[in-house]
Write a structure and sequence with these properties.
Distance between the termini: 60 Å
Helix content: 55-70%
CATH architecture: Up-down Bundle
Shape: globular
CATH class: Mainly Alpha
Largest sheet: 2 strands, antiparallel
Strand content: under 5%
Strand order of the largest sheet: 1-3
Number of strands: 4
Structural class: mainly alpha
């Protein structure tokens, strides 16, 4: 049986399961559509939350980013730390408040349609931006494993999400995400076990990463340092030069993650506040299974990749292009690996393009490898069995679709419930609201598809923009809404607008998506950044601006009504919990 046929079987089987679950768990009411009827148990909700959380960026991009250098483990620390913030500081209190959506909480807590509308705008910007990365990730997986174009892959992904998300709503999405979690975690860990055994003899990747490289007899990370150093790169385990930027970047990811609306809404699907806490704990366990494996996958995959095209222990350590492995040919067909023979010697030269290797007769780095392919290509690089390759195809697609569905539901809920039901037409019937929710989701899928086909940047940039928006707008207003009785509606709106505008304009200027006359678009280099702060790190600064503006404006304007202050206190303390839920 051909590899293509095996891939088709794995992917088709997973699609059949997802659609079957959606039909079985079809939403019949607005409560089932928005929050799965509030009847999901802690363990399945934890598993669904983990699937919602671990997007294409986690499954496909994170290990690729860490493979470039361990300094990129800030992605892992930021995303994991953000989940801890969400689980401890936000989830239980938001669940106690008893609302369906983030704008619902903001609108009621800050007793203002303006605050609700501002939160809707922030939510839509965050979710639409974030969903671009999921559609792009699905396109990459489809392009390689189903041998279709990237654009065709995105259309297929959109069609599948349309069926199970529009029909099932949150109820269908929740149980579909449970299945998707099983698929993606099995797909991620099995290749990691195989490769750890190959390179270190240890079946546990987390331990193998710190073990001995079987062939050379030296520690695996020391071997990787040796290999990349010989190619002119800094050591894989080298320290970061700009520690301030790394701290701010990690913080931006943390608070941006804690403000992601599609994850927050998951804690409204459980019956009780205690279940919200329990499901948060279970989700952390399920997330840790992948996140502790990712650094091992990154280091081992990079070692395998380099030694494939740059053989060790030979007189001329480079590979004849005509003799390149089959996996290189496969990924060349997708355009995600590119070769340019700059010195016309017919050999693959792979090294740091800033290094001077003129004594070797080399004339520039000739192999361009998109880091997003590393996890997907890993089984092929390591010559693993065909069924493992088929499994990782299904896992990559599951990761992209699970998060895309959660984001699309957050968008749909914001439009149908927070805009149409609450602001535009409060008298709308439940049947009409359900129809509006499904139409909103269908439109959101079309918008996401278009943006996936025409993304404003590569996956990491787009995802960082989404986290920056969430960090500078949503997280601060939730924190202040829960922990400060003094923040009023004027302060909350002013803070959200100030933080959001600062962050978006800063990112757009330096990533070239926003033109300011006379600047000629400032080059995206550390020398031009404000205080050396990268556009990918600026969300944390935007959050500080949000907090500062909100507190300052609230201090010089009227305090919130007494009943709102009592509500805030009741959310935090058991004494008034019943009043908060019934509000």
């Amino acid at each position: 049986m051909s590899q293509f046929t095996i891939n088709i079987l794995f992917v088709a089987a997973s699609f059949a399961v997802y659609i079957g679950i959606a039909l079985w768990a079809r939403a019949g009411s607005t409560k089932e559509f928005y929050v799965a009827g509030g009847g999901v148990g802690p363990i399945p909700n934890g598993m669904a939350t983990a699937a919602d959380w671990m997007s294409a960026a986690s499954f496909i991009s994170m290990a690729g980013l860490i493979s470039v250098g361990y300094v990129n483990s800030s992605f892992l620390m930021g995303w994991t730390g953000g989940y801890v913030l969400l689980a401890m500081l936000l989830a239980p209190y938001l669940r106690k408040f008893g609302k369906f959506t983030v704008p619902d909480f903001v609108g009621d807590r800050f007793y203002s349609k303006g605050a609700r509308l501002t939160a809707v705008i922030a939510l839509l910007l965050t979710s639409i931006t974030y969903v671009i990365g999921q559609m792009s990730g699905a396109g990459v997986a489809f392009a390689r494993f189903l041998e279709v174009s990237n654009s065709t892959g995105i259309w297929i992904a959109s069609a599948v999400v349309f069926v199970y998300a529009v029909i099932g709503g949150m109820k269908g999405i929740t149980y579909t995400q449970v299945a998707q979690y099983v698929v993606l975690i099995v797909a991620y860990t099995i290749p990691a076990v195989f490769i750890s055994l190959q390179l270190t003899g240890n079946p546990i990747p987390q331990l193998g990463m710190f073990g001995t490289h079987s062939e050379s007899g030296i520690p695996l990370l020391a071997k990787l340092n040796e290999v990349v150093r010989d190619l002119g790169f800094q050591d894989y385990t080298a320290d970061v030069s700009n520690k301030l930027n790394m701290v701010l970047f990690t913080l931006s990811l943390m608070i941006g993650t804690a403000g992601l609306p599609h994850v927050i809404i998951r804690f409204f699907t459980v019956p009780k506040v205690s279940d919200a806490r329990s499901s948060a704990g279970w989700a952390l366990v399920f997330i840790a299974l992948l996140y502790t494996t990712a650094p091992a996958v990154a280091s081992m995959a990079r070692l395998n990749l380099i030694t494939t095209v740059y053989p060790q222990g030979v007189e001329q350590p480079s590979l004849e292009y005509a003799e390149r492995p089959e996996w290189v040919k496969n990924w060349e067909n997708t355009g995600l690996i590119k070769f340019e023979d700059k010195n016309n010697d017919g050999r693959i030269q792979m090294y740091n393009p800033t290094a001077d290797f003129s004594e070797r007769g080399w004339n520039g780095n000739e192999l361009e490898v998109n880091s997003d392919i590393l996890v997907l290509a890993n089984p092929e690089i390591a010559n693993l069995p065909s069924w493992v390759i088929g499994l990782i195809a299904a896992g990559a697609i599951a990761a992209a679709l699970s998060t895309a569905a959660g984001l699309l539901l957050a968008i749909s809920s914001a439009v149908s419930h927070d805009l149409i039901k609450t602001i535009i037409n409060p008298k709308i019937s439940e049947k009409s609201e359900m129809l509006a929710a499904r139409i909103s989701m269908a439109v959101a899928i079309l918008v996401a598809t278009y943006l996936g086909l025409n993304p404003p940047g590569f996956a990491a940039q787009v995802v960082a923009l989404a986290f920056g928006i969430a960090a500078s707008s949503i997280f601060p207003v939730l924190m202040m809404g829960i922990f400060s009785k003094r923040i009023n509606s004027t302060g909350a709106v002013s803070g959200m607008v100030a933080g959001l505008l600062f962050t978006v304009i800063y990112i757009f200027i330096y990533l070239g998506w926003f033109f300011i006359p006379g600047t000629n678009n400032l080059p995206n280099t550390p020398d031009n950044w404000l205080l050396g702060i990268s556009p990918l790190s600026i969300g944390s600064v935007g959050a500080l601006i949000n907090f500062a503006v909100a507190f300052a404006v609230s201090r010089v304007t009227a305090a919130p009504p007494k009943e709102v202050q009592e509500l805030v206190e009741s959310v935090r303390y058991p004494k008034g919990a019943g009043a908060a839920i019934s509000h």
